[in-house]
Write a structure and sequence with these properties.
By secondary structure, the protein is mainly β. It is 5% helix and 49% strand. The chain has one domain: Immunoglobulin-like (Sandwich), CATH 2.60.40.
């Protein structure tokens, strides 16, 4: 059994330098409806369409830490903290999953933003 102090000190932390964030946040969604008539049969279709580009999907297994090692494919209750290396803002979109996260940059910028990532395993 793991004691309380072992549980606190057993968390893993990774530092990922020079990661480029190119994803942009979604502006929103609109509902759309369309109809189509083929050979006398009419179909009505309904859907949601995202406006704008989407955030960047990142898998932990694709990241390299500062020592050149790949991060594990799955991390228990991860938290990702981006630190922008420029004045442009970056942020994690939604909640991180055990296998990855989504990240985006401020849409007012014109280019990808270099960041350093701190990935922390929070555990149970």
């Amino acid at each position: 059994m793991i004691s309380g102090i072992d549980r606190l000190t057993a968390r893993r932390i990774w530092f990922v330098p020079d990661f480029m964030v190119w994803g942009l946040p979604n502006v929103g969604q609109i509902e759309c409806i369309a109809s189509e008539s083929v050979d006398g049969a009419t179909n009505v279709m309904f859907g949601l369409v995202d406006i704008g580009d989407g955030p960047q999907q990142v898998l932990f297994s694709e990241l390299l830490d500062h020592r050149g090692n790949n991060l594990p494919a799955s991390i228990n209750a991860p938290r990702v903290f981006p630190r922008a290396r420029t004045a442009d803002a970056t942020f994690v979109v939604e909640t991180e999953s055990p296998t990855g996260f989504r990240i985006a940059r401020d849409s007012s910028g014109i280019a990808a933003v270099p960041v350093d990532l701190l990935v922390v395993e929070m555990g149970n």
